[in-house]
Amino acid sequence: MTKEFEKLIREIGDCKSKLDEDRLIEKQIIILKKFTKKKKIKPKQQSELVLRLLFCQLLGHDVSFAHILAINSSQESNLFYKFIGYLAASIFISTNEDLQLLMINSIQKDLKSDKTLAISIALTTITKIITVDMIPAVLSNVLILLKHQEPLIRKKALAVMYTFLKQSPESILKYQKDFELMLDDKDISVTGVALDLFLFISKKKPKTIKHLVVSFVEILNLIISGKLPLEYDYREIHAPWIQIKLLKILSYLGQDDPNTSREIYQVVQLVLKQSEIGFINGVFAGHAIMHECIKTITKLYPSTKLLELASIAAGRFVTSYSNNLKYLGITALTDLVLVYPEATNKHQIIIVDCLEDSDETLKRRTIELLFRITNKSNISFIVEKMLSYLKTQKDKKYKTSLVSRILKLAEEHGTNIKWYILTINKILQIFGDLVTHDIVYNIMKLISEGSLLEDEEDEEDEEDEEDEENGKKGSQKTKYGGNTALKIFSVDIYSEIISLKRPYPNILYQISLWVVGEYSYLCSNFTTEETMINIVDLINAFYISDESRAMAITALTKMVSHSGKYLEQIDTIIQKYSTSRNTDIRQRCFEMKGILKLPNIIDKILPLDSINADIEIDPNLGFLNEFVENSLKNGCKKYISKEERIKMENELQLGMNENKKKSKELRFEAYQPNNTQQSSTWRIPQQNIYEQEINKNQITNTIELEDSISLKVSGISQRWTENGYSGFKENEPKNIENQTEKMEEKDTSDDLNQYNNLGDNNNNNNDDDDDDDDDNNDNLNNNNLNNQNFNHKNEKILEVKSFRFNRIGSKGPMLEEGQKTNEKILNNDNNNNTTTGQQKPPKTEEELKREKTVNALFNGAGSVRTSRKKSKSQRINFNSKHITKNTIEKNLEKTENLINLGSEKN
Amino acid sequence: MIKFILIVNKLGQTRLAQYYTTGLSINQRVALENEITRRCLSRKDKECSFLEFRDLKVIYRRYASLFFLVGVDEEENELGILEFIHCLVETLDRYFENVCELDLMFNIDKAYMILDEMALNGNIIETNKKTVIAPLHIIDQVSKKLK
């Protein structure tokens, strides 16, 4: 040992922190790197360098630069250097696979060595570095070594075979006979290694070694009768680890096999009895075997006698003072209860006490066991214990899984529905944010439907309650049927939760709001007005989410319609939230407003207790047929499906190619003057747009409808087309009919042009104004659109709308379509440039490609980004069509009436 | 099956590491070692010697300033491993005579060799102390001749 090496070790030993250590090792690595550049290193120095490298790697530093030193060292003839080299190489190599091939040569040589130790070291190295490809290179040598005279070599050779077996089972299983012979080896440790192989086989292919059960039982008998050399005893237990291996193999062989199991019962019982001898303080060898016996018994085909013994043994573990044994007892019971449920009967209190222990490992196991032993009689007790345990946990992932399991447990074993609701509420109050929404629906369903089973059980409880409440609700019960007691019970609970005004998790409030909204008329502890005020307060509270707020507004709507009572506070709320940023809240506010205007049909829209009513949905909207027919009679155009229209358009397009060429020529008309002032004066109030949206949603399926009631959405229709936003064009009224198709064509290309420009804007902001001019020019032409293609347009609006709403999904068909047309427009782009006289440099292919992607990206964002331009086009639209605010409102009213009509029929 | 055997001191510095599984990079190993050591060191004496970590079970035992940590799979017998650690320590003790942290550091090669004689492939292959130490004596003789 040189001074340098000694110094390094001492320094490492003196390091007080990871930082010191890292600094030291980094210095060391710099020194070592110098050595690797030297051509000649003496073997002695080399082996020492290798050891220094080993330390560096051990402390977490990469030393791959010097792995070659280890390999060089392994090729030394001196056994000591060879040993160091192999040792280091086997440690380095698992992180550097190229080294393996360099090793194989010297390994092959050493396997044929006449020195036992050299062979042994080489074999040890093989177990650590071998890969499947290298097996054939050494297999024949190893097979010979299985019959080596030294037990050390036989043992190691077998271990190498185990490595091979793991890597490539199929090719090695054919040597099974050789392994069987090794079971009878005169050296018990060789037998021990052979058992490893059979343990592996018993897991993969138990059927192929069933005939060996007798041998295994024999060996086990031999061991427990104390016929092994004394050196294999460990604390008065005979070869405990070999016993454990044998028990494991037997458990796999006896699994699901009554005949084999019967052969095993006796010896397991003997081993179990013997293992008690080793119960000395602080030594667990005997316990280890006993534990393995319990495991084996659990796996074997059930034998009542053995299971009883096993449960007694497990009981000894659980009742022990040592946490190690408690832990194993709990683990054993967890498996045992599956085949022998009585096992835990005597120890329930001890098991639950384990949850109070400070030991986290023990507690987690106990929870597992509790999940298995929960039944109808102990559910409430166990869930309570689990919840108090849950409160102490910090790991969110674990908590989440535990909460969902507890919920499942309560659902499975809960006998009393009221207890269930109260428990769920308790869980939600504390862990609401860890719960999935399924539970909300479960509860809703449970409360609204009840369940027949629960009712029977509940009857007793109800009777008690009835006495308490002096039949206050007795009359109501008969009125509303069997589940009413439950509904009253839950509505009381939930209205109280709302009245508490605590920052509970939203999920709890959502359930509460739904229940209260549905059944407020049953509430006994609060009047409807009180609850309404509570809800209003809740809506204003900072701690609830928008989702809950929206639910609260719906709950209010229901309560108002059920009770017919209305409060001023509700008015304020609606006023306040009609302008909410959240569209859901806004929509619900408007719904409420709308519904309240219709006192005649209010109870039809929101009937009492309607959650279970079957609603027949007519997907064809058959109730509108009459209306459609009437409209057709009045001269409206018939609806043409999209596919048909595309076909028609395609046919027309073929004929239009020539016309198209014309459109690319220079235009000499003057541009439309740019009136920016008007744009600000004509802006549709947000509310109206919103209502239009609602209306359109309702009539998506009947396009004619919109046409016939002549809702003048032409402003929108011309701004929005299938392909997104488009400006529109004012045009000379001549040749209208001929040009219609042409304009369709142009329309598409123009609005895409705009997208294209958007993409451009990103790259080149200066172009912005020019582009706008360009748009306007197009807009002028675009106004060619007349009523004839109005129908098509309308559908396009709807498509665009649906596209906008679906845009969240990354690749809708619309997106792809948009992309395609974008490509098309790119080709038109250059032509347009020439027509408007803009001097843009012609685009290279690469630019085009980039633009395509930018366009695809902005296809969605484009609709938002064009809003600025939208206002401009709106202005033009209103100018030309002379649409006033009044006419829009009139139209809206018409649509509203239509909806009312529809809902009445519904 | 044993997945790894670690010897660390009470400061959390690794003194010996043997993995029986492949596929962990050096950085992953360091992270794993740090995490497990940290958890083991924070446990109290009275608590059980087992630690559940990801899909592993870590069985540990403390001897003076050294911790012996063994990571095993679900199937392994925990107490068997606990006793194996003790058997390993006894063997080290017999070879080094009153083994201490510095012994292991100065003779890291021998420490690895003892481990390799007792466990291979993640299986316990030898627990007879005499048999384990015999090859070490041969190596010692060879290295003495060199000096």
TrEMBL record, chain A:
Keywords in alphabetical order, please.
Membrane, Protein transport, Transport
State where composition is biased (Basic and acidic residues): 729-746
Q: Where is the composition biased (Acidic residues)?
A: 454-469, 766-777
Q: Which regions form coiled coils?
A: none
- Quote the subcellular location field of this record: Endomembrane system
What SUPFAM superfamilies does the database record attribute to this sequence? Answer: ARM repeat (SSF48371)
Q: Which domain of life is it from?
A: Eukaryota
Instruction: Report biased composition (Low complexity) as residue ranges.
Output: 751-765, 778-789, 827-836
Q: Where is this region: Disordered?
A: 454-477, 723-793, 824-847
Q: What is its main location?
A: membrane
Q: Which organism is it from?
A: Anaeramoeba flamelloides
Q: What is this protein called?
A: Ap-4 complex subunit epsilon-1
Domain Clathrin/coatomer adaptor adaptin-like N-terminal spans what residues? 32-449
Q: Pfam families, alphabetically?
A: Adaptin_N
- Keyword Membrane present in the record's keywords: the answer is yes
Automatic annotation (TrEMBL), chain B:
Compartments, as annotated in UniProt: Endomembrane system
**GO biological process entries:** intracellular protein transport
Enumerate the SUPFAM superfamilies for this protein: SNARE-like
Is Membrane among the key words of this record?
Answer: yes
**Which family does the similarity line name?**
Belongs to the adaptor complexes small subunit family.
Q: Which Pfam families match?
A: Clat_adaptor_s (PF01217)
Q: Which CDD domains match?
A: AP4_sigma
Residue ranges constituting the AP complex mu/sigma subunit domain according to the UniProt record: 1-141
Query: What are the protein's UniProt keywords?
Result: Membrane, Protein transport, Transport
Q: Is Manganese among the key words of this record?
A: no
Name assigned to this protein:
AP complex subunit sigma
Q: Which GO terms describe its cellular component?
A: cytoplasm; endomembrane system
Q: Which domain of life is it from?
A: Eukaryota
Organism lineage reads as:
Eukaryota, Metamonada, Anaeramoebidae, Anaeramoeba
